[in-house]
Design goal:
Layout: E1 4-7, H1 14-26, E2 31-34, E3 38-41, E4 47-50, E5 55-57, H2 63-71, E6 76-78, E7 80-82, E8 86-88, E9 94-97, E10 100-101, H3 104-112, E11 117-120, H4 122-126, E12 135-138, H5 145-166, E13 170-174, H6 176-180, H7 186-191, E14 203-205, E15 219-227, E16 241-247, E17 252-254, E18 266-280, H8 300-307, E19 310-317, E20 320-325, H9 344-355, H10 381-401, H11 423-464, H12 468-486, E21 496-497, H13 502-518, H14 538-542, H15 549-580
Parallel strand pairs: 9-11, 9-12, 10-21, 12-13, 13-20
Antiparallel strand pairs: 1-5, 1-6, 2-5, 2-8, 3-4, 3-7, 14-17, 15-16, 15-18, 18-19, 19-20
Helix pairs in contact: 1-2, 3-15, 10-11, 10-13, 11-12, 11-15, 12-15, 13-15
Length: 583
């Protein structure tokens, strides 16, 4: 059998190909990522064309059978290739910012695609621990948006992020996280001057305004974007036009020559239009006035389309790379935003773009955080999580059964429309989504419990067989699972959401649901600010955003899913190692 094979990453199989490529990198196999189209030639002389973004593997070692067995992908075996040019990939380590916002959607997608993910707090960034990572992801914001992410970093932390990028790291921002790395308006800098020291790309906020400290929202929901850099690694495999969720975030315009050491701005995608599942910000609190037939003319989003402004940009800074997603590649198109799709490929592309610029692979070990409680035996914390679920299901069901037809907090003037739905529609649909998330969470808990049992058994057999490195990886993953369950962000840090352990998230959900029940009969003073009653309205507390109880509930599931995927891969690798004697 030839030692040369290709993993095609077309639109139907890209997820399997990306997962397989990461599996091979974890196994120590050499993998290259094609940056130009190329042709393979079989032993019989048959030729096959391959697109940018395909993977070339120049060794066999039994991996081709694993690709079919594990990932359902059929490698193209070849005797030779012509016109191949590509990046030699290294295994990289991704740090997800835990000091504010919603990092779990990103973490879940990277884990689903086979990347090793971890979380890093602002205190650790200030102490220089970004040196342990190759890529930093800062997600959408919490209740305080960009300020809630920047203030915990302080000027010292912002300078550390800039230093990390200039020395060769990659910065990936989403929504608030992309605003954090862009050229911010003066009104924002007056309140948050620290951000001046973390401006990384020559991209200015186009939709600047006074409403939210320098950001005027175009709206929330699914928009259409146009691929403006199809030959760039970030956009490999992306169609000419694609749907992507936009959630209040920035739209950009070039302001080249402003940031010292940064290249000209690269536009990766521009705003092409709205879909029926989009609410313009102009109709957040008067959705019933929106003329569906007339469409989305005369809105901020329509102006962005007419003027050709970008929602995904980036560039180079020093030795590093910067990608700013004004829209959310990590969110799905549905109200719960859990059903991720085509845009997620850009996240993986960003990681591979960075992985092709590394000189060595990172070790397969997570960041060790001392002082976190652990269950005995390891994995036992899952049972504690499982026992907490019924109370949440009951509380959500009680709210669902209450008559909210006369509740003023669900009127258009108080309940913010998103995704082309009224507040009352969102209330009904997202309360139903509690059961959808519960089913997924319970399935993940059960699957993880089984993976823990297998991992513990296989670890002993690996030690007996002298395969200590893989045994150590399993132990590390078991500890990481316990950390994810029991970790608690100290209240004294005043983090604005951000990274929390599963039990801490469940506590937050319980509090939100109880407060919503207590405030069910409350009256609200109308406000032009759609988030004016963020901490008091049952709508906002339970269903109104990715920061509400339903969003945090989904994040709890995402976090456990991250750790299940890691354990599941290690169980597979251990069985393979013990079954055929390979390392």
């Amino acid at each position: 059998m030839s030692d040369l094979a290709i993993l095609n990453a077309d639109r139907e199989s890209w997820q399997q190909a990306y997962r397989c490529a990461n599996f091979l990198l974890n196994e120590g196999v050499a993998v290259s990522w094609a940056t130009e189209p190329f042709t393979s030639v079989s032993g019989s002389g048959e030729t096959t064309d391959h697109a940018r973004g395909s993977f070339l593997v120049a060794e066999n070692g039994g991996w081709q059978e694993a690709a079919k067995d594990r990932f359902g992908i059929q490698p193209v075996v070849a005797d030779a290739v012509s016109d191949f040019a590509g990046l030699a990939l290294k295994r990289l380590r991704i740090g997800h910012y835990g000091g504010g916002g919603a990092p779990m959607n990103h973490a879940r997608i990277f884990a689903e695609l086979g990347f090793l993910v971890d979380f890093v707090d602002p205190q650790e960034i200030r102490e220089g621990r970004l040196d342990e990572f190759d890529m930093l992801v800062i997600p959408g914001g919490g209740g305080l948006g960009m300020v809630g992410q920047i203030k915990p970093l302080g000027e010292a932390g912002c300078r550390k992020v800039t230093e990390f990028v200039k020395q060769g790291g990659m910065y990936v921002g989403a929504c608030a996280g992309s605003f954090d790395g862009a050229i911010a308006p003066d009104i924002f800098l007056a309140d948050c001057p620290e951000q001046k020291h973390m401006q990384l790309a020559n991209a200015a906020i186009w939709n600047r305004g006074e409403a939210w400290l320098g950001l005027e929202s175009p709206g929330v929901g699914v928009i259409e974007a146009r691929n403006t850099a199809p030959d760039h690694p970030l956009m490999f495999g992306m169609p000419e036009r694609f749907a992507i969720t936009h959630y209040n975030g920035p739209i950009f315009e070039a302001q080249n020559g402003t940031i010292d050491g940064a290249s000209d701005m690269i536009s990766f995608a521009s705003v092409a239009g709205a879909t029926a599942n989009f609410t313009p910000a102009e109709y957040f609190l008067n959705w019933s006035d929106f003329d569906v037939e007339a469409g989305h003319g005369n809105t901020l989003l329509s102006r962005a389309v007419a003027e050709g402004h970008s929602n995904i940009v980036g560039g180079y800074n020093g030795l590093g790379r910067v990608v700013l997603f004004g829209s959310h590649a990590e969110f799905g198109y549905n109200l719960a935003m859990d059903q991720w799709d085509t845009p997620a490929r850009m996240l993986a592309n960003a990681a591979f773009w960075q992985a092709g610029h590394l000189t060595e692979s990172r070790p397969l070990a997570r960041k060790i955080t001392p002082g976190i409680a652990r269950s005995h035996p390891l994995g036992g914390g899952l049972d504690t999580v499982s026992k907490r679920v019924p109370a949440i299901v009951t509380a959500a069901q009680e709210l669902r059964e209450r008559d909210a037809s006369g509740s003023a907090w669900l009127d258009d003037a108080n309940a913010m429309s998103t995704f082309g739905l009224s507040g009352r529609e969102i209330w009904a649909e997202n309360l139903e989504n509690f059961q959808v998330v519960t089913t997924a969470l319970e399935e993940t808990i059960a699957a993880t419990m089984a993976a823990v049992r297998d991992a513990q058994s296989l670890r002993g057999r690996l030690l007996d067989a002298g395969k200590t490195a893989l045994a150590a990886e399993i132990e590390d993953a078991l500890f990481a699972l316990e950390d994810a369950i029991h970790y608690r962000a100290p209240a004294e840090w005043h983090h604005d959401f951000g990274y929390e352990g599963a039990l801490q998230m469940l506590d937050r959900i319980d509090t939100m649901l109880a407060k919503a029940k207590e405030n069910f009969a409350t009256s609200l003073d109308p406000s032009p600010n759609p988030y004016a009653h963020f901490e008091t309205s049952p709508f906002h507390l339970v269903v109104g955003s990715y920061l509400s109880a339903i969003g945090v509930y989904a994040s709890c599931w995402f976090l456990l899913r991250v750790h299940f995927l890691r354990l599941d891969e290690l169980v597979y690798r251990a069985r393979r190692a013990l079954g055929n004697g390979s390392a």
